[in-house]
């Protein structure tokens, strides 16, 4: 049995090394290569660099504020008040979370862009010569961020409120606290872990956001777009310095937010009975809440409806009219009948599937070693699985691009850039925290006596895995895997740095369709991406 | 007695200061052995060593002269009923019972009939009551016809009213199957009722093995005397007053004490009425306290009494 113990430790070392090789090693290489004096000086002296760095910081912070301002009141409205349509609407307004960022961005473009639906309508109504506005710059980026990231605050706050014990609110009232005092002195402090969690997620997403600044930024640059632009200009040393700078901001931001998190007191106190939603009594207020709720839902869903509409308009058919004159399925027919259009779809599908499958296997091995075997390296393995979450996707994209464009087998560096392997590898790195978190959490909840029961009934290791362990891990596994799959399917951050023409994914095809003004095809791609994502996430969330 | 299951100097070292064993025990074919002890006594470790979930640091386990010490749980053919049953929540009752059978469907209904749950095959596990879950767990453990049945606190999850009835049914099923059984409990009553023989464990060591009567009437040490059943411990003068030789410690069961005209003097401090009788807490003159079980009206609180013993256990 001592021999057996050594074997699990060996497996743990092997897994830790493998994870370190894909997760940390490329970052270390970039950090080492970034110590290039000329590049550092260029970074420090060029005003454009500082502007982009500063822009990344304040855009991210403002995104957090805006998302909180929309998401938190919505959560209270839907968790605490009852009005017609509460359940349906409550689910509908969580929808943006299932959409790949790029799809949301182009949907926004088609709706609010200068040649979009709304602008056109206003232009026609007021007989203007030009579009009434240009959707560009920091304001446009913030608008898209607020629109797509309020969901984090909405979902986290609702989850926090659902855990709240109604007796605590009653206690506050019995002690004579007013409603306002109850909110500020009881509810908000208890919700703090949820709110900080949402803030961290929003900050990281905003900092790593690429599609919105890329499409709407114009001359306004943030670090993610700046890095890609520098890389495309061929100034690799400078790109590496920028990458390190972005990574430093991300880590610092996370550390600061972590410090404010506090313990999860709600969990520590155990589960109480959540307050039941109160029906709104006054008819006028009730009607107002209903109208506002539905109005909001339509406003939030409008971009996606627009995307669906645009996808039905054939090339060149819609010029100056308010409503499209022709509607048919021409774009979809081209999508599925032209080999060159079908290829990016198949590319994205197999690359997302492959990276998700490997991420699931690695997370399962990690879960078994960390939770069940409690190997000495368990903290290292868990940390490596979670790490990619703490750094923006652009950082990993650049790190992989640099590490795996050199053939130096002794340094464990191989030429993978330009092959079909590099994009799935990049997706895999981003998938690890998602599958890792889901599977580790499920593993921790899994009663070890179930596996012992299987063993005492004569089931060997593999039969126990297939018949007991995997079925029990299924919810966490499916949730993690579906999130990882959808993230890979809609990825643009890594793809734009690492793709080749042969392996180009859907996101790249959408961008090139937009460049060729084939908005209908781009929209059709977006709709397909949206539907596949929604179906996959729906399957993944099934209990 | 031919030993079917032999435990020879089995030992498990958790840390240098926490060890279980070495313990040696022989269990006959068809016998039900209780491992009785307080929490932390090592009884659960013993059961897990038998099941193969823990590996022994010394000693051997043999079944029918076949050594199984290093045989993994999956190939040991020992059935186990877990404290919280460990029924697979994603499988129905029939699939749970059939898990160890590998497709011999007829055995499932036989096993369910054995525990009086015939026709429950398609039920979901969470739809069952605690008592039914316990029986499914028993049927599942017995279905593959294991060589030994192990039960970990088999009744601790049931409410007290159900426990006594389930205990009898459990013993009936085990005896009908005739399987050699080892079970763990921390309750003396359960050990007496269910076990043919009891092994008392304390601090990782075996204190005494014997029938319920052996343990109650002839405990070998103070731990067994006080852990198994109620016991009054007397030393010095009090012991001498009850007829013991100098320097011995004597143990007397409350029902073996009675009020008399002469003997150990004391004052009744409390009376606890139990219906059939009453426990009288008596404070002796040298301030030791002891319990007398007697007729409800044998004495009053505050009364000065003399107590004599009808049977003493000298240690």
How are the elements arranged and paired?
The complex is a heterodimer of chains A (543) and B (315).
Chain A: H1 2-23, H2 25-33, H3 37-45, H4 47-80, E1 81-82, H5 86-92, H6 101-112, H7 117-126, H8 138-163, H9 166-174, H10 179-208, H11 211-216, H12 223-232, H13 236-259, H14 265-269, E2 278-279, H15 283-310, H16 330-337, H17 339-372, H18 378-386, H19 393-403, H20 422-445, H21 448-456, H22 461-489, H23 493-498, H24 506-515, H25 519-541
Parallel strand pairs in A: 1-2
Chain B: E1 3-15, E2 18-28, E3 32-36, H1 43-51, E4 58-63, E5 66-67, H2 73-76, E6 78-81, H3 93-98, H4 105-114, H5 130-142, E7 148-152, H6 160-177, E8 180-185, H7 188-194, E9 197-202, E10 205-210, H8 212-217, H9 222-227, E11 232-234, H10 236-241, E12 250-252, E13 257-260, E14 264-273, E15 278-284, E16 289-294, E17 304-309, E18 313-314
Parallel strand pairs in B: 3-8, 3-9, 6-7, 7-8
Antiparallel strand pairs in B: 1-2, 1-4, 4-5, 9-10, 11-12, 12-18, 13-17, 14-15, 14-17, 15-16
Features:
heterodimer; A: 543 residues; mainly alpha; MetI-like fold; two-stranded parallel sheet; globular; B: 315 residues; alpha+beta; Rossmann fold; OB fold (Dihydrolipoamide Acetyltransferase, E2P); 6-stranded mixed beta sheet; 5-stranded antiparallel beta sheet; 33% strand
Any idea of the CATH topology of the domain at 46-282 in chain A?
Answer: MetI-like fold
Strand numbers in spatial order across the main sheet of chain A: 1-2
Gap from first CA to last CA of chain B: 28 Å
Give the count of helical stretches of chain A.
25
In the CATH classification, which architecture of the domain at 46-282 in chain A applies?
A: Orthogonal Bundle
Strand neighbour order, sheet with most strands of chain B = 6-7-8-3-9-10
Radius of gyration of chain B: 23 Å
How much helix, percentage-wise, in residues of chain B?
Answer: 25-40%
